[in-house]
Each structure stands twice: as structure tokens, then as C-alpha cells.
Amino acid sequence: MTKLIDQHTKGIMEECKKRAVDAGLDVNDETLEYIITNRDLVELSPKIMIPTLYDYWVHDIEVLQGRGKYELYPSNPYETVINTRPAISFYNDNNPDWLNVMIFYHVLGHIDFFRKNHYFRNTWDYDFCGEALSDKRLIANLRREHGRWVDYVIEFTRGMDNLVDYWGELSRTDSRETPKKLGKIDYFFDIFLQTIADFKNDNLRRQTYLKWIEEYNRTDGENAFLHAVNQVWPELPAKYTSYCKETTQPQKIDPIQYVIKNSQFLNQDKNSWMKAVMEVVRKTSVFFQPQIRTKIMNEGWASYWHEKLFLTDDRIRGHEVDFARINAGVTSMPRVGLNPYALGLRLFQWIEELGDTNKYSLKYRSLSDATEREKFNEQTGHGQEFIFKIRESLCDFSFLSTFVDQGFVTKNDLFVADRYLDEGRRVWVWYVKSRKAEDYRQMLFNSLYHPPHITVNEASEVGLCLKHHFEGKPLVKEFIHNTMLGIEFLWGGPVFLETNEAANIEELKDGTKRVTWQRVLYTMMSKKLKREVMS
Question: Virtual CA dihedral for 257, 259, 261, 267, nearest 10 degrees?
Fold first, then answer.
């Protein structure tokens, strides 16, 4: 049973907040901290630690699985924090005070990241826990009325909830990316006069511009001025109409939105309640998209600050060895595999070093001599400022592609490992495959969340047509049947999916593989899946 932390522990948290704010972190004044047991964590984990998330039978299965794993392999998670307003965090009930100091700093790092990273900007203006509670009640009421059909709709929608248009949602929350139409007067001066082909040189264009500015100031009323302009350039009204059409772009919608809007099955009065359930599933998916796409940055930022702030905190006295042991377990770099805490921490430390020495400058990058590059150090002291800017602007992909260079890989002794089977000893033998930055970076890219890009072609009388925009990764075949089965139910008719699959895989002498791809059409009709190769 969860409960709020006591006043003594809350006092520790408030002191951590003051020091975090002094260090430059943005943590809101109001936060909620709860004490929780390991078994409670098992109960909440399937709901992604959102206590008010809607109920779903798969959550119950995952709870049973979690209990079984906990009996065999007892674990002791330290904390978890969720991006709500106010921020809510959970702490293990057997954490000592000194450990809570370290954990509080880690959580405050997360809160700052949630509040400042621009990939979270579509979550800044509302409290997801409150919305989730409202959604939970809605689904509970629908379940009383429609029974197990609610769970079918949830399951079918969750089958495609990784296809949500996250980037579209993100751009729509940023007014700077919203195209705005100019009025006729502004269009005439700002665009038409600047691009008109009749002007042979800039001097003539400048004179004409000033002439029409004077005319505008002399003329009584905009209509009279536009009439005078049209007498000279009768093509202006048509040009302005064309400009408006180009500026007003149709809003893109993802497959879930398209089905909600256009499905004749869902638009029937008896089935319209399903739309509300689908919207809940989609909204939940969109909310968690930024966390999935910034896992390495988020954990690295929190680890950076729990280490930096805790080492300067006088409450560490007497627990230096305990801290070193726990911190090493959290932030140690594995020789094989990926630890997002460790990688993100070292990247932020590397970026801070680049900023302090000005090694991210064009001046440094233009040096070709290895000795000069090694001695280069302008001691700007801008490292902290640099990492704060990076924390605001990037996601995991841009973070890794920008800063995982050969210098970082060499400094941290990183490599790509592979294995082969020693048939004589019947064991796997691991070896260092590459120490190149591009190979290590590609290994990291392969581990990132990258859902398929699937859009809807205009549906016809034949059925709903989905197009997979192939990016070098085929769809997971075992998911195709169930996902298309669910879409067929929600659409109320046949569903077609175009995708790419490997036609031939050729082993090359250097150990790499050359793949020949072919376009494939999947058809789901009357609950039966058919596959055919497209010419």
C-alpha cells in the first residue's frame, strides 16, 4: 500500500531541491513522493507506474509474471518517477536516509529533463495522471455496458499504437512550426515584389518597393491600394490564391486517427463508443513516446546530476564506500550490451569536456595534426552551459549521432563485440569485432526505438490500404496477422498492407550479408491472411 513520505524524509527532499536549483536545474516547487514496497512495484510496473492508468487484462497477466520472477529473483528497485503535474515519484520503503539523498538528486534530474527537453513539450500543459483517471472511469463504465468487447477494442488498438504520429503531434504543439498565411498587403510587399520576374536587378526592385510604400501611405484604404496594384499586376489575385493553397497544408493523421474518422463500422451508432476507447489508447501512446525516444539522454542526465550533487553534499560523510558501490552498479559500462545510465552519463561528461576546452569548435575540428589536437585546450569553462543546451534540444538519435565520435569511443575503450560457436568445446566465444566509432554508433542505433513508418493510402471500396515506408528494417512477421486482424475488425472490411521482405540473403566473404528486397502485399479478409509478391 503506497503512502506519502514522512516529514523527516520530505525535509531531505526539500534540501535536495534547493541545491539542485542552485546548480541550475528547473524543478517545480510542488512534487509528490510516495513510499512503496517491492511487491507494490510489481503491481504498478505493468501500468508503467501510472496508478490511474486504465485497467486491462494483460496488466493482470504481467503482474502474475512479475510476482513469479520476484519469488525466484528478488530485486530492490530504488525509485521511479513519472512525468505528471505535479511530478510523482516512488521510493523503496527500506532506503536509508543517505541513499535517499542520492536518489532524490537522480529524480530531480529526471524532473528537470521532463520540464526542459523539447521532445516533451506536448506533455507540459496538462496532468496526465488526472487525465488517466478520467479515462479509467470512462473505460470502466463502458466495460459495465459492453463487457469483454471493450478489451477487444483495447487490444486491437494497442496492436498499432506504435504507429501514432508523434512527430505531427509535436509540431502541432509548437506554434513556431505552424505555417501562417500572410494577408494580401503583406504578401504583396514581402513575397510578390521580392520575387517578381520583371525586375532585372536589385536596384530596380528596391526603387519599385519604395515607390509602392509611398503609394500605400498616400492611398485612403487598403481596397483602393489593392485596386491600384491590380491595375499594374492583374495576376496578383491568382498568385495570392495559389500561395494560400500552398501554405494551408492538410493535417496528417496516423492509422488510428484515420480509422476513427473514416471507419463505417465505427460510425454506426451501436459501435461509436469504440472511438472513445481508441482515443484513450492513442493518447496514452503519444504521452510515452518522448520517454521512449530519450531513454539514454534522460537516464544519463539524471545519473550525471546524482553523482555531481551527491559528491558535494555533506550528508555523504561516512557513506562514501556505500555510495561508490551502488553508483558503480548503476553507472558501470558493460563490455557487452548497453547500459543507458552509464552511456548517457559518460556522454554528458564528454560533452562538458568539449565545452570546457572548446573542442567542439570549428577551430579544433579543422586541425589535422594529432599532436596539436591532443594539446588543444582553450579553457573556456562553458561546459556546463553546453550540456544544458544539449539537454534541451536533442533526442537519443541526434545525441548519439552527434557526440559518439572516435575520441569518445577511444577514451572510454568502447568496442563492438560479437561471438562465434566453438564447436569443439560447445561454448560461445566472444571477441572484439570493431573499435571504430561508426560501427559502435551503428550498434547503438540498432538498439534504439524505431517503430515502422506506416501511412494510410486513401481507402477505396475495396478496403483500407496501408503502406509501409521501408527504411531497411522489415516488419516482424509474427505480429502482422494479429495486428491486421484487429484493424480489419475496427475498419469493418478488408485491409491491405504493402511492405518489403527479404527475397534473397547472400553471405559475402568479409562476413557481411547482402540482402535483396522485394515488395510484398498482405491482405486480411474475413479473418484470413494472404501474402503475395508484387511485380
Answer: -140
